[in-house]
Design brief:
- This protein is of the alpha+beta class and about 325 residues long.
- Helix content is about 20%, strand content about 30%.
- It has seven helices and 15 strands.
- A seven-stranded antiparallel β-sheet has the order 9-10-11-15-14-13-12, with helices on both faces. It has a four-stranded mixed β-sheet with strand order 4-1-8-6, with no helix packed on it. The protein has a four-stranded antiparallel β-sheet with strand order 3-2-5-7.
- Strand 10 and strand 11 form a beta hairpin.
- The longest helix has 18 residues.
- The N and C termini lie far apart (about 80 Å).
Amino acid sequence: MIALLSACAAPQARPAPFRARPDSVARGQLFGPFDGRVVDGDTQRPVTGALVQATWTFVSGFGMNAPAGYREWVGSTDTLGYYLIPALADAPSERLSDFHLVVYKKGYAAFRSDRRFEDFGPRADFAQTGYLVELTKWRDDLSHARHLRYVGGGAALAELTAWEVPAAAAELGGQKPALARAPVPGAAGQPALDADDLLLPADLKKATGFEGTFDVSNLQDEPSTPTYDSVHLQARGRDETFDVALRVWRLAPAEQKKQYQRLLDELPRVQERNEIGDRSLRATSEKGDILAAGYADDRRGLVVLIQCGVAQCRTHDVVLTLLRLMKDRADRKFAP
C-alpha cells in the first residue's frame, strides 16, 4: 500500500525561491502557472512579440543529486505585453529542482528570472504571478559575448540570438564591431518617429491626480512611420473618458501645413487659439466627453495633438498643461 501511494503521489518539488505575487510574502510554486507583463523600462509601453521561454529542471537522488532532465515552454507576449505560462502538466517522477524564465526581444537586454544581467548576481524580486518585467534598451557599450552567456540555451533562443554571434566573436577577437540594430518600420531606411517619451504615465498622474494604472500602446489608426507616431494611455479598468491619446506628425513644410489644416477641418467644435507653438487649437467631441488640443511647430515640422477624456482631464487648461509639457520635450528631442 505504501508503495502504491508513493507511485500515485504528485512529483516532489523543492521550495520555490520566489514569491507568489510581488505584493505577497507567500512562497510561489515551481510548477506554475506564471503570468506577468513585459514593458519598455523607459517608457512603460508594452513590448509585444517578445520571446518568453520557461524552463523546469529535474534531479534524481538525495544528498548527491544527478540531473534528470528538463521541460521547456516557449511563447510570446501579446499586444499589451502580457505573458501566461501554463502550469507544468507532464512532469516526470523525479524531483523538480528549479524554474527560470527568460524574456528576449531584439533591441533590448534580455531578462532572466533568476539572475541580473548587469552583474550576473541573483535576482530577488521575481514573482510567480502579476510580475512586471522592465526591459532595458540595448546600448552600444554592452557586450554581446556577455549577453549570449547570460541568455543561455534553447532552440528558440539560439535562433533569435544568432544575429549576435558575429558581434560576440569579434569582441572575443579584440575587435569592436558596429552594433547590429533591430529593424524599424519606415521608408528608405529611415527610423520610425518615436513619441514614446513625450508624455509618460507619471506625468499624467501628476497633472490630473489619477491614481490608477495605465496600459500604454500604439493607437490602431495608423502604424508608426518616419513621419507619424501615436501613443494610447488606456486607464486599466476604466471607461474611455479616463484615456489619453497622443498623435505626432513630423513632415516637410507643405505637408505639415496640410496636416494642421486637416485637424482644423476635421476635429469637432474646433477653435484656433494660438496659445502654443506657431499655431494651436482646441476641440471638444460632440458629446463633450473628450477634450483635445494641438499645435504646429514650423521650424521642426511638427504637428502634435492630444485628446483626453473628461474624467481624466476635466478642463482644457489641464489638456494644455500636458501639451506644453509635450512641447518642451519635443523642442529638446527634435532639432529644428
